[in-house]
Every structure is written in C-alpha cells, then in structure tokens.
C-alpha cells in the first residue's frame, strides 16, 4: 500500500548525473553517423530524432519522480501530517513543482527546436540547432539540481520511516522522556529500540507487533513529549503529537512514579492535562512504571491525588463508551519493565480495552453483517429440558485412562537423559534394544574391513536360504544341459543321409533367400491373392517338378489340378463358342476379355515366356484401366527424361565430376569482360 | 524490521568489523589504480569526457599545490616606474607639449561626421543573397522563379499582415520569426530577455533592413523598460539599441549586446 510504505520510490539522480545519463543514452541509442552529402530531409530527420529522443527521456525521468513521490493530500492524514512535520509541506510541494515546470519547459524547447529544424538547409545549421536544443534542456535541469538533491534526501529519509498501518489495531505509548516507553516496547515486541539513560534517545516513531487472542497489534513507541505550549514544540515532539492526533489507538500514558526520569509527578500530570484533548474517544490507560524503585502505595499525598485525578480522567473514557464500570483496575496499572513485573498484564489490559472498543464500533456500524460471523457463535435452541451430554464409548474412556497411566509409568529416554546429567553429558546407548541371538553380543564392535573386503558387502540375514536356493538351481540347470547336450557328429551319418542333409540345407537356404527378397520389397508391393498370379509361378508343371524332386509320382496330382482349373474350363468353352459371339458369354463365369485373349495365345504356345503389351492392365498393378496405366507410364518417362539427359543415375545423383572444368575456366578475363584472350 | 537510524544503531551496539578500517584504507588506496586503469582503457566519447573532467581536476590540483608552495619568505620587488620617467639616453631632449587639448565632444563630432559608431562587432562576414534567400518555384508548371523565402531569422512587428500570397515576393516563414532577444548589458554583465521593437540596420544592405532580417551584426531596437533606466532629465528610457552577436538561424535564439 502506497499510503504507508515509501520504500518503492526510485532514486532521484542529482542534476549533473541526470544530464550525463540522458545525454549518453541519446548518444548510444540514436544513429550516430551522418554525412554532408545526405539528402537534406535525411539530415533533418537525423537531428530531429535526437532532439525528440532527449526530450522524451527527460520527460520520462521527471515524470517518474513526480508520480512516485506521494501527494500529501492523497495519503492518509496521519502520514500527510507526519511528512509535513518532518519535511515541511511547502518546501516539498515547491520542489516537486519545480520538477514539473522543468518538464514542461523541456517539452516546449523540444517543440520549438523541432520546428526550427524544419528550416535547416545544411548539415552545419541542423547540427548547431540540435546542439542548442540539447544545451538548453540541460541548462533547465542544472537550474533545478538543488531541488533534485533535496528530493533525494527526502526519499532516503522516507524509506526509513516505520510502516504503520493507520487502520489496524494500534497501541500508542506516550509520556515524558526517559519514563520507560522504549523498554516496554522492547519487552512486548521484537522491536529493538535503543534504550539509553539520556533523554530523547528515541527521536522518531518506532513500531513493533505483538499478539493477543490470535490477533496482531501494532505498538507504536513515540519520542518523549515535554510540557510546552504547542507552538514551541520541536520536530521530534511534533511526531508524537501527530501520532496521537491521527491514529485511533489505545493510549498508554506512562508515568514514572519514582521520579528517576528527572521530572516530578506534578510535571507529568501537568503534561497529561495539557494533552488530554488528544485522548478523546480513545481507550486510555495510565501506566505507572518503575515500581521496583518506588511502589505506588509509597508516594506522597499530593502525588497520590494527582494520580487519582488522572485515573478519573481515564475512567471518563471508559464511561463514555458505556463499558462496565467493573474494570476499574484496567485504567490505572502498575508495572516495572526492569523486573518484568506486570508488563504482560498491562499489555493484556490495553489489548482488551482496544478490542472491546473496536468491536462496539463495528457493532454499531452498517457493515455489521460482514463481521457478524466472527463475533457470534450460533447455539441451537434446546427444545426440551433433557440433558444430552456427549456420548463417549466405554472402551475409549478406558483406553484414555490406561494411556494416562502408562504415560506416567513409562520412563522415556528424555527422562533418563535429564537424570544423568542433561543433554551434553549423557549420551544414550543406541544398542540397548538390539535383538541378537546372544545378549552378550550387544555391546560388541563390528568390524568393517576384513581381508581387504568390506564386511557390509557380505552381510545378508537370509544368506543361508539364498545359498540353498542357488545350489538347487545349479543342480537343475546341469540336468537340463545334459539332456540337450547331444551333438551331431558328422561321422554318424552315411552317404545317403549326407546327401539328403545337403539337399535339405540347400533348399532351406533358397527359401530363405527368396523370403528375404520378398520381404525387402513387401512395403511397396501390394499383397495380391494367388489367383492374380502375374508371373505364372504357380503352375501345375512346377508342382510336378517339385513332387518328382521329392520322389513322388506327380501325374495324379497334375491331372486333378488340371481338371479343376478355371482356364481349362474357359478354354473348353472357348473352342465351342468362338463362332456364336458374345451372347453366350454372359452366363459363364469366364475370365475377362483380357484373359480370354491370353488364353488364346495360351493354346498356341505354352512354354515360351510371354511379354505383355505395356498398356495391358494386370490385376495387381493398381490401375483402373489401360488409359490410366498409359498415362502413368508417360508421366514416369517424362520425369526421368531430364535426368537421363544429364546422365544422372537417379534422383539422388548430384555428383559433379569436375567442379571447375578447365576448358570453361581457362583463357578468359577474370572479371568476365571477354571470354577470350 | 530495521527502523529509523538502524545503521548507526548497529554501529553503536556492535561497533565496526575488526578489519573495517584496514579494508577502508586499502580500498581507498586502490582507487588510484582503478582510476588510472579507467583513464587508460576508456574509449570513445566516454574516454573524451573522462579526460576532460580529469584535466580540469588536475589543473585545480596544480593550483592548490602551487598555493601551498608559496612561501612566506621575502622576495626582491622591482621598483615601479614613475610617470614621465625617461631612460638615461633621452635625458637631454626637450619634450614638446601639445597646445590644443582635444575634448571629448569634438571627438564625438568628428566621429559623427565620419559616420562611424562604436559597436561591439565592427566587422561582420557578408551574407550572400543565395545564402539569405531560397528560390521558390511557382506557377502551374513550376517554372516561375520570382518568389524568395528568407532563410534567416526575421522580425515582423505586431501589426504585420502578409500580402496576398499571389503577390508576395519575399516569404518570411512564421517559424523563423522572433520577438524576443537575449540582451546582455556589457557593464552589469547580466542578460535579460527583452522584446524587440524593430530592426534598425542590417549591415548587409538596406533591403534586408526593410525586410526585418536579423543576422550577425544587425542593430536592433529593444524594449528596456524592465531595466528601469532613467535619463538625467528624469524621463524613463524604454527603447535602446543592441547589436546581434550570434547567428540566430543556427542557435534558435537571438543574443545581443546592449549599446550603451
């Protein structure tokens, strides 16, 4: 929140540094090279850019300063007043105003000189105008350098102001100098305020935080106030007055009843009465400090009267809130920060009073519904008089009792430790609970290295079991190996068997080779069913050959195959229906026209290898009809033509046989003027 | 959280580091070497700026050193030469005295006749016409070249209205019109921003005077009422002549010296 944290303001550079920064930035970030011969518009643009760039940078930096420093009217009045007290509002506003006028002046200068640059007709004139513009801007900044120095000092001081939240629960400590305010805050919070025997040790506000009933309270330590008329107060006292005036806090007015601060109770009471107007509507507690030197009961009569007067005043603040009159003790309390006697009681009293007041105010405000859930715990209304205590099973109760007993009975290691001399003296024996075969081994020292090996590598609790398992496995494996350990010796076979073996091996290797070839092209090749057998591999002759190779009579098988083959059927029909024409063809499950043509040639010559015309579509090709196939073939040929002309082996052939053939590179001028000498 | 003067507080409570002063002393001693390294390695504009700063520092250093070296010992002092003292070899001659003493007023009258005035800049670089004017082409086919635009700073006066653009021969652009001049008083040595009343004389020619062109050396009349000068007769002086001392078209402002 900007209102109470001023640490985020950027550093304000002093005048000379600001000029250096901006000018060097202009020199680095804008183009630097320009020549006399450039077009005039380019020259003008070059210099106008520099002027504009400098103006923009100044504008940015000065705007940053103006925006980041807080406006005294926009922040919480407590901070507004505090800053006024510390730095003088008028001086502050003047300094910021000067920075603002400087910013406007620089804008005007830049505008004027950019207008003038439009009339520049030579490099020299444009350059002089740019120099003049930048020079004037820097003079403006030089003139405000005292303001910049002042703002930098203010910024440094503001950054070290304590971050006080004006709206949260606050406890304010006030009183004469040296009464013990800083010692008190040191006791209840973690703020480390300097405590010294001389007056005005604390010269500014300090803040610490403390907790009470799960809520965080701010405790603010103020410099001591002297009893003087308002106009005579110096800056340090004005800080405390400002805090008293603007913060809605519980006020602890400290009273030194022993008088060791150097001021009597009468003087302190006088101060109290002079600033009691500032205690309006705030819970006030009068704290009597330094009771170790002088107990409250032991002071003189007049002093007692004064103290009672103060107490009465403080009571009025309680009464004004309509609180219970029973809290008489919470108005005047005694304590001693040296012996820490009553410090916590004071803190609790103050926190309690503040909390009550804040709760009451919240109750009366319109925003009660937002907070209501925090105050009110809804209890269900009892519908009858029957008692319904919580139901705890008997077993749980017994277990609880036993646990309690056990807790008392069992002696923990910690108890042992404490008995035997404490943490540094007693070291627990960790080996006490080891489970070993022989209890005497508990305290033995285990060796770590034996014969050059780590003992730990060989330790395993189930080591014997593992050994047994391993041995079993070993036995099994040996038996298996004996089983299939019989080798084929070459001497055992006779000649026929050797031949047969050779045959089998040859056939096998052939099959393997064939399979490999097929496999390598299988990705690009479609799997065609056997009836579309393009290369006529699966013929009955082949079958016959294979069968004879095996030593069987093929004739029966061939006959059977032939009797069942389709072409045969077709052929038969062919011969008879040649004369009749197409009418008969519809019913038959004959092969297509193409096949008929084939089979015609089949009847003429069977054993020759056939070459088909290129446009003939065989079923495995993937073409719809012969026109498509012809087109495909044409495209393929066209794509290859260029490569063939360049004598390239394929798509990937990029070999250049000679990069610089001599007949092209000799006998010419190197710059390409002529191609001959 | 650190509050108030926490640095001083820490120093009060815990004192300084055991080697704090030693380190500080050594760091300051190292600054000399660092500075010389920067001076030797800095290049370009940074190097030049650093060199300039350093030169100024060194000059100051030398001066203070010299001042310290001035001893309180006595030195021989030369006797001043008396007025009218004459060296020995001229002692026998008779000095002639002038009969007539020329008075100030006569000298002024002579000067007036000659038409010479004492001005801070007696001689000024002549400005050629093509430097002063830029030719503006006009007409349907941009062939007519009778218009001219003034490229120097001008003054036109408060009641000025342009001639109709069709008949305007000399164009004085509004961007180059100036009303105020930075006038320096030669004796008071301070500068005021005064309004121009008119252009009295431009040394380059009467045409430029009539156009109101202000170049270096032009005599202008400025409104000095804010200086509060009074004549011996009791009248308030509100206009005085000043001479322009810079090139206004290069600097964007008119700097002049008051002619007293």
Write the layout of secondary structure elements.
The complex is a heterodimer of chains A (677) and B (260).
Chain A: H1 15-29, H2 40-68, H3 77-87, H4 89-117, H5 123-143, H6 145-159, E1 170-175, H7 181-188, E2 206-212, E3 215-221, H8 235-246, E4 250-256, H9 265-275, E5 284-289, H10 301-321, E6 332-334, H11 343-364, H12 368-375, H13 394-409, H14 413-419, E7 449-450, E8 453-454, H15 463-483, H16 495-520, H17 540-550, H18 555-564, H19 566-577, H20 593-604, H21 626-645, H22 662-665
Parallel strand pairs in A: 1-3, 1-4, 4-5, 5-6
Antiparallel strand pairs in A: 2-3, 7-8
Chain B: H1 6-14, H2 20-41, H3 44-69, H4 104-114, H5 129-132, E1 133-138, E2 144-150, E3 153-154, E4 170-171, E5 180-184, E6 191-201, H6 206-211, E7 213-214, E8 219-223, E9 229-230, E10 236-237, E11 239-244, H7 248-251, E12 255-258
Parallel strand pairs in B: 2-4, 5-12
Antiparallel strand pairs in B: 1-2, 3-7, 5-6, 6-8, 8-11, 9-10, 11-12
């Amino acid at each position: 929140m900007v209102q109470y944290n001023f640490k985020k303001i950027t550093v304000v550079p002093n005048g000379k540094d600001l000029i250096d920064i901006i000018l060097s930035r202009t020199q680095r970030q804008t183009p630097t090279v320009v020549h006399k011969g450039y077009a005039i518009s380019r020259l003008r643009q070059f210099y106008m850019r520099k002027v504009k760039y400098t103006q923009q940078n100044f504008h940015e930096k000065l705007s940053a300063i103006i925006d980041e420093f807080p406006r005294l009217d926009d922040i919480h009045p407590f901070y507004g007043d505090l800053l006024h007290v510390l730095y003088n509002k008028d001086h502050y506003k003047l300094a910021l105003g000067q920075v603002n006028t400087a910013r406007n002046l620089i804008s005007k200068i830049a505008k004027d000189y950019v207008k003038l640059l439009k009339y520049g007709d030579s490099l020299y004139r444009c350059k002089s105008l740019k120099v003049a513009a930048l020079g004037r801007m820097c003079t403006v900044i030089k003139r405000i350098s005292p303001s910049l120095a002042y703002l930098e000092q203010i910024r440094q001081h503001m950054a070290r102001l304590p971050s006080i939240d004006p709206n949260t629960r606050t406890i304010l400590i006030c009183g004469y100098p040296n009464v013990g305010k800083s010692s008190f805050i040191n006791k209840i919070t973690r703020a480390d305020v300097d405590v010294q025997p001389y007056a005005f040790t604390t010269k500014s506000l300090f803040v610490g935080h403390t907790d009470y009933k799960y809520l965080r309270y701010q405790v603010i330590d103020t410099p001591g106030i002297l009893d003087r008329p308002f106009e005579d107060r110096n800056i340090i006292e004005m800080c405390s007055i400002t805090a008293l005036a603007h913060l809605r806090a519980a006020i602890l007015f400290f009273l030194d009843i022993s008088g060791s601060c150097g001021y009597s109770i009468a003087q302190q009471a006088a101060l109290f009465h002079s600033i009691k107007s500032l205690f309006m509507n705030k819970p006030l507690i009068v704290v009597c400090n330094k009771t170790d030197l002088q107990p409250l009961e032991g002071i003189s009569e007049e002093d007692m009267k004064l103290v009672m007067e103060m107490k009465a005043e403080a009571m009025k603040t309680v009464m004004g809130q309509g609180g219970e009159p029973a809290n008489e003790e919470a108005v005047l309390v005694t304590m001693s920060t040296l012996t820490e006697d009553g410090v916590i009681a004071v803190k609790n009293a103050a926190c309690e009073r503040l909390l009550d007041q804040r709760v009451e105010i919240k109750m009366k405000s319109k925003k009660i519904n937002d907070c209501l859930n925090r105050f009110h715990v809804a209890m269900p209304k009892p519908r009858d008089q029957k008692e319904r205590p919580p139901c705890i099973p008997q077993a749980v109760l017994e277990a609880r009792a036993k646990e309690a007993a056990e807790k008392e009975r069992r002696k923990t290691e910690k108890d042992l430790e404490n008995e035997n001399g404490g943490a540094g003296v007693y070291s627990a024996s960790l080996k006490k609970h080891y489970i070993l075969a022989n209890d005497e081994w508990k305290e033995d020292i285990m060796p770590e290295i034996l014969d050059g090996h780590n003992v730990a590598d060989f330790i395993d609790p189930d080591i014997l079991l593992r050994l047994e398992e391993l041995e079993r496995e070993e036995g099994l494996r040996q038996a298996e190996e004996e089983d299939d350990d019989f080798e084929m010796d070459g001497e055992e076979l006779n000649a026929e068997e050797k031949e047969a073996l050779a045959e089998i091996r040859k056939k096998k290797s052939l099959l393997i080779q064939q399979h490999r070839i097929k496999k390598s092209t299988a990705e690009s090749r479609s799997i065609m069913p056997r009836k579309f057998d393009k290369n006529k591999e699966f013929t009955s002759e082949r079958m016959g050959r294979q069968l004879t190779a095996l030593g069987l009579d093929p004739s029966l098988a061939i006959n059977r195959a032939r009797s069942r083959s389709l072409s045969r059927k077709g052929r038969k029909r062919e011969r008879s229906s040649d004369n009749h024409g197409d009418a008969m063809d519809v019913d038959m499950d004959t092969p297509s026209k193409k096949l008929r043509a084939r089979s015609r040639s089949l009847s003429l010559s069977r054993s020759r290898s056939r070459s088909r015309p290129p446009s003939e579509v065989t079923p495995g090709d993937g073409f719809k009809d012969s026109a498509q196939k012809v087109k495909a073939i044409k495209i393929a040929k066209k794509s290859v033509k260029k490569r063939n002309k360049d004598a390239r082996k394929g798509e990937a052939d990029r070999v250049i046989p000679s990069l610089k053939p001599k007949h092209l590179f000799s006998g010419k001028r190197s710059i390409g003027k002529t191609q001959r000498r | 959280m650190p509050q108030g003067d926490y640095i001083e507080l820490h120093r009060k409570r815990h004192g300084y580091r055991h080697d704090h002063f030693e380190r500080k002393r050594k760091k300051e001693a190292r600054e000399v070497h660092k500075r010389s390294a920067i001076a030797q390695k800095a290049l370009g504009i940074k190097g030049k700026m650093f060199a300039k700063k350093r030169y100024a520092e060194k000059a100051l250093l030398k001066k203070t050193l010299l001042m310290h070296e001035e001893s309180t010992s006595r030195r021989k002092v030369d006797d001043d030469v008396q007025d009218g003292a004459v060296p020995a070899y001229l002692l026998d001659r008779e000095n002639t005295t002038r009969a007539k003493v020329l008075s100030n007023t006569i000298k002024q009258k002579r000067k007036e006749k000659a038409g010479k005035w004492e001005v801070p800049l007696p001689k000024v670089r002549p400005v050629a016409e093509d430097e002063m004017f830029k030719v503006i082409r006009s007409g349907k086919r941009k062939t007519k070249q009778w218009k001219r635009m003034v490229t120097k700073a001008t003054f036109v006066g408060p009641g000025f209205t342009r001639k109709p653009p069709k008949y305007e021969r000399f164009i004085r652009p509004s961007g180059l019109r100036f009303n105020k001049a930075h006038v320096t008083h030669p004796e008071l040595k301070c500068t005021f921003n005064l309004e121009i009343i008119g252009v009295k004389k431009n040394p380059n020619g009467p045409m430029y005077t009539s156009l109101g062109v202000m170049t270096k050396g032009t005599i202008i009349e400025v409104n000095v009422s804010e200086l509060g000068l009074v004549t011996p007769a009791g009248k308030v002086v509100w206009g005085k002549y000043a001479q322009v001392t810079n090139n206004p078209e290069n600097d964007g402002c008119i700097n002049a010296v008051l002619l007293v």
